[in-house]
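Annex B. Sample input.
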Amino acid sequence: MRTSKVLKAYLIFSGLLLTFIGGATLAIPVDMKNSVGIDIAENISVLNDVRAASALLLTIGLLTLLGAFVKKLTFTSTLISFLLFLALALGRAISIWLDGMPVDGLVKATGLELVLGIVGAVLFKTFKDKN
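Annex B, continued. Sample output.
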């Protein structure tokens, strides 16, 4: 995969965002969810599920960051990060359609995930090596 400053900036920004959100939510899930108006403090099963998903975000965030600096990982990092963002946006959109509108913070997250997913897909297509 060819690299560029724009692709590297995307990977760094996306990687830092995923690493921060994933790491913080893994470490302090109740506080992170409370910050957007979601109370999960009394439900151990929800805490377990949130921590598991947060570990996934943290891991993909670290891989995405590595892809900005390790050329062999750039293709994989770009592909996985934009697919993750698009999957999150799609899942949230399906939930909005089926379940109704969530708190404002989650609606904003949906928009950011959609934008990052589309930008990542465009960058992936633009800088993918032609075989």
